[in-house]
Amino acid sequence: ERASALAGGLEPGALADGTPIPLLANLGSPDGSQKALEAGAEGVGLFRTEFLFLEQRMAPTVEQQREQYTRLLADFPGKKVVVRVLDAGADKPLEFLNDAHEDNPALGLRGLRSLRANEDILREQLTALADADAVSEADLWVMAPMVATVEETRYFVRLATEYGLKTAGVMVEVPSAALLADRVLREAAFASIGTNDLTQYTLAADRLLGSVAAYQSPWHPAVLRLIGEVGRAGTAADKPVGICGEAAADPLLAVVLVGLGATTLSMSPAAIADVRLSLRQHTLDQAKRLAGIALAADGAVEARDAVRAAIAGEA
Ligand code: PEP
Ligand code: MG
């Protein structure tokens, strides 16, 4: 795994003190594999499966899904691949899943909620994933989007286990899940923080609405405090905590996220090189100190400025 990244002249993600921070890719279809590997991605931290369902009148068959998942896993032998089950609803509505009108779709039947209401679709997806896993050399992890409660975590992990998918986790992108991360991580094998939605829900600002775009900053100390809560829970339970939202692609924020307890970072392949470089410039102790500085700020802009100033002072 490490060898193939090195063969491409790309070192694995690590801090200045050698602490490994695997850098993974966010992919929206198996077509992105090549770019991810060229960028030295050490695996896939978020495989979004919506491409199989969007603009379809009906759900794809198990066979269609199996083919796509098999293709994806074949590109990452020996590497971790985290597949997220369908995240329908809100910004990704599907006519066969989200038929009722919702005034506030981001607060509606989306993510795991909508799969639970259409459990046959979730079961078919898990069947296809288990089939692909059986013939693959990749390390398949599965996770559910938009998990808000411990009970939902238990539900998803139980169902995934039923299909032989052993490493089942959840996305933490709703504040309730972050606040109860210790209990969520009693059930789940790992957590992956979706900072796009976590920011939207923490600051009550629609991520698609331009007029409130200023609120959509993962630098906000309220968001960072929630991430720190998950990081602490992960450390205590000795379970991985990844970041798979846009925040991980910001080289400076990436260091802060590691300081808050993130153990892996997943991002679009184009961002990997800059994040790799940035991590190499800080030790874990420095990252923790910078996280403390960001947490102590009053707002997002202040947090970023304070971290920048602190780094300039270190140099
Ligand atoms: C997120 O919410 O941060 C995330 C990674 O998921 P998506 O952007 O697909 O909602
Ligand atoms: Mg999300």
From TrEMBL:
<keyword id="KW-0762">Sugar transport</keyword>
<comment type="similarity">
    <text>Belongs to the PEP-utilizing enzyme family.</text>
</comment>
<feature type="active site" description="Proton donor">
    <location>
        <position position="244"/>
    </location>
</feature>
<feature type="binding site">
    <location>
        <position position="197"/>
    </location>
    <ligand>
        <name>Mg(2+)</name>
    </ligand>
</feature>
<keyword id="KW-0808">Transferase</keyword>
<protein>
    <recommendedName>
        <fullName>Phosphoenolpyruvate-protein phosphotransferase</fullName>
        <ecNumber>2.7.3.9</ecNumber>
    </recommendedName>
</protein>
<keyword id="KW-0963">Cytoplasm</keyword>
<keyword id="KW-0418">Kinase</keyword>
<feature type="binding site">
    <location>
        <position position="48"/>
    </location>
    <ligand>
        <name>phosphoenolpyruvate</name>
    </ligand>
</feature>
<keyword id="KW-0479">Metal-binding</keyword>
<dbReference type="GO" id="GO:0008965">
    <property type="term" value="F:phosphoenolpyruvate-protein phosphotransferase activity"/>
</dbReference>
<feature type="binding site">
    <location>
        <position position="207"/>
    </location>
    <ligand>
        <name>phosphoenolpyruvate</name>
    </ligand>
</feature>
<dbReference type="GO" id="GO:0009401">
    <property type="term" value="P:phosphoenolpyruvate-dependent sugar phosphotransferase system"/>
</dbReference>
<comment type="function">
    <text>General (non sugar-specific) component of the phosphoenolpyruvate-dependent sugar phosphotransferase system (sugar PTS). This major carbohydrate active-transport system catalyzes the phosphorylation of incoming sugar substrates concomitantly with their translocation across the cell membrane. Enzyme I transfers the phosphoryl group from phosphoenolpyruvate (PEP) to the phosphoryl carrier protein (HPr).</text>
</comment>
<keyword id="KW-0460">Magnesium</keyword>
<keyword id="KW-0813">Transport</keyword>
<feature type="binding site">
    <location>
        <begin position="196"/>
        <end position="197"/>
    </location>
    <ligand>
        <name>phosphoenolpyruvate</name>
    </ligand>
</feature>
<dbReference type="GO" id="GO:0046872">
    <property type="term" value="F:metal ion binding"/>
</dbReference>
<feature type="binding site">
    <location>
        <position position="173"/>
    </location>
    <ligand>
        <name>Mg(2+)</name>
    </ligand>
</feature>
<dbReference type="GO" id="GO:0016301">
    <property type="term" value="F:kinase activity"/>
</dbReference>
<feature type="binding site">
    <location>
        <position position="84"/>
    </location>
    <ligand>
        <name>phosphoenolpyruvate</name>
    </ligand>
</feature>
<feature type="domain" description="PEP-utilising enzyme C-terminal">
    <location>
        <begin position="14"/>
        <end position="282"/>
    </location>
</feature>
<dbReference type="GO" id="GO:0005737">
    <property type="term" value="C:cytoplasm"/>
</dbReference>
<keyword id="KW-0598">Phosphotransferase system</keyword>
